[in-house]
Design brief:
single chain; 196 residues; mainly alpha; 2 domains; 0% strand
């Protein structure tokens, strides 16, 4: 794989239109599209940066991709960039959702429409799983180690999917263990020197 070449948005309006396009492509599940657009296509982030930023975006309140757009916009153009990225994420999708809601209210009881919605849910789940598998390679550079990341992911899956533990408790318990382990590993690597 060639070395990552740092790129970035050319202007706040580039952020607006990029996130508008991203939002319009990723209706119902954007993880696969966000990763492809920001890492593979635009090269605004490396895979490792994407994983780190996505993890932060997931624990912040609000939609993950909106949080990510704010972080990226702020990173490149400060508050103005964050607001432009946010506007790009929300403006046109809001118009599309309002239009679809008006149309859907008249046909929501039709069996064909309900079947189509179930099918779209399965496709979204498949896209998320495929993106997760694609990003596994980036875990090789993670300070916690591939084995620890895999065990934490498996523990999270068992707790949420099989044991039906509320997500807030999984986040606090498994996330707390993950943070403690990462802190320990960073200390061993000497990365934490000079920090309070």
């Amino acid at each position: 794989m060639p070395d990552f070449k740092r790129a970035g948005p050319a202007s706040p309006s580039d952020l607006f239109w990029s996130f508008t396009w991203l939002a319009l492509q990723g209706f119902g599940g954007v993880l696969a599209i966000v990763q492809h657009e920001l890492v593979d296509k635009k090269q605004w982030l490396t895979r490792e940066e994407f994983i780190e930023d996505w993890a932060v975006a997931q624990i912040l309140p609000g939609p993950n991709v909106v949080n990510l757009s704010l972080m990226i916009g702020d990173r490149y153009f400060g508050l103005r960039g964050a607001l432009m990225a946010l506007a790009g994420m929300l403006t046109f999708p809001l118009l599309v959702v309002l239009t679809l809601a008006a149309i859907f209210s008249g046909i929501s009881d039709l069996p064909g429409v309900q079947g189509a919605l179930r099918g779209m849910g399965a496709v979204a789940a498949g896209l998320i799983a495929a993106t997760g598998i694609k990003l596994i390679a980036a875990l090789q550079k993670n300070v916690m180690g591939t084995l620890a990341c895999g065990l934490l992911a498996a523990l999270t899956f068992v707790a949420v999917a099989l044991m039906r533990v509320p997500l807030v408790w999984v986040l606090l318990l498994v996330g707390g263990v993950a943070c403690a382990w990462a802190y320990r590993q960073l200390g061993r690597a000497g990365t934490l020197k000079g920090l309070p």
